[in-house]
Amino acid sequence: MFTGLVEGVGEVSEVLRAHGDMRIGVRPLFEMSDCSVGDSVAVNGVCLTVTQVLPGAFRMDVSRESVSRSTLGDMASGRRVNLERALRLGDRLGGHLVSGHVDGVGKVLRKVPVVGSWCFRIGLARQWMRYVIEKGSVALDGISLTVNRCGEDWFEVNVIPETGRQTTILELKTGDRVNIETDLIGKYVEKLMKGKEIDRKGTGGESVIDQELLARYGF
User: Fold this and answer.
1) Same domain, yes or no, for 178 and 194?
2) What CA–CA distances, in Å, run from 19 to 58, 65, 73, 80, 216?
3) What are the φ and ψ backbone dihedral angles of 190, each rounded to 5 degrees?
4) How many CB atoms lie within 10 A of CB 149?
5) What is the pLDDT of residues 60-95, one digit of tens each?
6) Is residue 94 domain-resident?
7) 3-state DSSP helix/strand/coil percent for the chain, to nearest 5?
8) pTM given for the model
9) Which domain holds residue 119?
10) Which residue from 62, 80, 96, 113 has the least number of CB within 10 angstroms?
11) Which of residues 53, 85, 117 is at a domain's end?
């Protein structure tokens, strides 16, 4: 689990592709010497497992599924990426709950300076836009951001100077592809509303959670 508060930037040092899978090497550009084999690290918002630690760098395997759902397939040596290590119990949750399981890829439709900040409009498939709400949270390339406005197939976020300095987001240009993870809680609520429940005998029944029940308890 992650927070979407990027710790720093790394540089891709190697990319190996084989049968749809990948192996990438990353050189962090900040202090990360305590990284160990088996650690979870979000790379541009994609949760990956460290498989090898090298002097000043580490390697991670990327499954075909992760390649198909994210922009990691576009990676090349020298590319800068956002890095965040997994949340530890007792850490402050300054962003929002981010799983590192990217839903899909969005596209930068517009990038406009607003005083000292930047406003980004991101295009996203409608199947994922139903989880994006105004003033809700979204992870863009692993960065926790607040949704300012949203339409049927786009949303806008504001990037403050500090976020721009600590991440790669200001390197994005109109037309670039970005990893998007929508709100985790929203997806679970939808599943509960639509799903089935299994009773103790193993038979299926309609979910007892519906609009009437939620209204009865003040939701």
Assistant:
1) no
2) 22, 12, 12, 25, 53
3) -60, -40
4) 13
5) 999 999 999 999 999 999 999 999 999 988 888 888
6) no
7) 20, 40, 40
8) 0.86
9) 104-186
10) 113
11) 85
Provide the residue type at 218 as one letter.
G
Q: What are phi and psi of 73, to 5 degrees?
A: -65, -15
148 and 203 in one domain? Answer: no
Rounded distance between C-alpha atoms, residue 17 and residue 67, angstroms:
10
- For the chain, the domain total comes to 3
Same domain, 180 and 155: yes
* CA 146 – CA 136 distance, rounded (Å): 6
Secondary structure element (H or E) that encloses residue 187, with its range: helix 184-194
**Which residue among 85, 116, 132 closes a domain?**
85
In terms of DSSP bridges, do strands 8-18 and 21-28 run parallel, antiparallel, or are they unpaired?
antiparallel
> 80 by DSSP, 3-state: which?
strand
∠ Cα 72 97 64 (to 5°): 25
CA distance 197 to 214: 17
Residue 96 is assigned to a structural domain of this protein: no
167-204 pLDDT, tens digit per residue, is 999 999 999 999 999 988 888 888 877 765 444 445 55
Query: 176 and 193 in one domain?
Result: no
Q: Do residues 21 and 78 both lie within one domain? A: yes
**What is the token pair recorded at 76?**
């090349």
